[in-house]
Amino acid sequence: MLPLENVKVLSFGTGGVVPDAGKLFGELGANVIKIESKDNLDFMRTIGPDINNIAGFNEANRSKRSFGVNLKSEKGKKLVGKLIGWTDILMENFRGGVMKSLGFGYESVRKLNPKIIYVSSQGFGGGGPYSDFQAYGPMLSSASGMLSIWAQPDDPYPVGSNSPLPDHMASKHVVIAALAALDYRRRTGKGQFIDMAQTEVAVSLIGEHYLDYTYNKRIAKPMGNRSLYAAPHGCYPCKGVDEWCVIAVFNDEEWQCFCSAIGNPEWTKEAKLSTLRKRLKNVDELDEHIRHWTSMLDAYVVMETLQAAGVAAGVVQRAPDTLADPQLKWFGSVVEIDHPVAGPRLYPNVPFKMFGASPFQSSPPPMLGQHTEEICRGVLKMSDEQIKKLVEEDVLHTPANTQGTGKSMFG
């Protein structure tokens, strides 16, 4: 039995946060239904020519079923209302006000299901001057202050990343909050409304910098790969073209292990590098010595040499390296899932094991409306005649009536 096997989740997710949270719930055994419509696609379905073959969408939407429905129609809304009465958790991350305009704001939903756990996650949260602002993961990195320090000291502007880091962190917070609310409901019989601002999640990632400013009036500046608490601490070039290894030494004991591992060259014996405080003071010179050593060796040799001595070091791997990584292979960290349109593709596996529970398994990401009829029969107890009529009326969406739907953001 899986841990969340009897939990029912309704996901009005778009983009990354709620879809990724739904994936986690599904992989833990929950019955997750994604509410979507051909008339208002999850924007992740639009970043390619085929709405059912989008890598980013497929990754975030595994282990759930798709219920295609026209939310502009009263019949469609009525069906969703019945699903709300059936579910334990409702999650949404539409722009502020959208759910209310559809008739599914919290106050309306709790009348249909007083014990529901309703998770609302906007970029800037509910209420306040920015609550209706459009948001996007990389933008939230900027709004939180994260990008102000995500650069090398001499870069002309913040570098950052196009990886929506706040999205992927926020999705985990959604799951934690919803599980806490489930336990609260188990003990009290009461539902919950959870308001989670994604930008607050981004803020939580750099809390020490807010604390430093509050007490010391210091504004954090970009440090690149360096650290205030470790030296050496950086990403060093290795033999070959664009090959790198990261190294981190946090205390004097680790420093002695590092020195022994590289053969105790004369420069390691200098007094100005004998303590962490001194190494931090002379970090430019220290890094130059280390770059000279690493540049003569293969990155994996650097990593294995230092790891054997108890020093933290790791090769900067790319996708092919990661797929071939012996440790990740041993853990089964990447799995192949066959999709009816995309075909067999590699995906990250559930990143933990729970002994005593059934093994986790990811199911393929759904095509738009793939499970509409199945959900109508199994959950809503509708007849085939009723389903057929609503499909013909364009109230229900299935793969058959969504083929070629939608417009790619690329035209």
Describe the structure.
By secondary structure, this protein is α/β, with parallel strands linked by helices. The strands form three sheets. It has a seven-stranded mixed β-sheet, with helices on both faces. The chain has a three-stranded antiparallel β-sheet with strand order 7-8-9, with helices on one face. 36% of the residues are buried. Strand 7 (233-237) and strand 8 form a beta hairpin. The protein has two domains: 8-204 and 332-402, Rossmann fold, CATH 3.40.50; 233-322, formyl-coa transferase, domain 3, CATH 3.30.1540. The mean pLDDT is 93. Helix 1 (17-27) crosses helix 7 (165-188), helix 6 (137-144) crosses helix 8 and helix 7 packs across helix 8 (198-204). It is built from 18 helices and twelve strands.
What is shown here, in short?
The chain is an alpha/beta fold. The chain has helices at 17-27, 55-60, 74-86, 98-102, 106-112, 137-144, 165-188, 198-204, 207-216, 252-261, 276-281, 283-294, 299-308, 319-324, 326-331, 372-378, 384-392, 399-402, and strands spanning 8-12, 31-36, 65-69, 89-92, 117-120, 192-195, 233-237, 244-248, 312-315, 334-339, 343-348, 396-397.
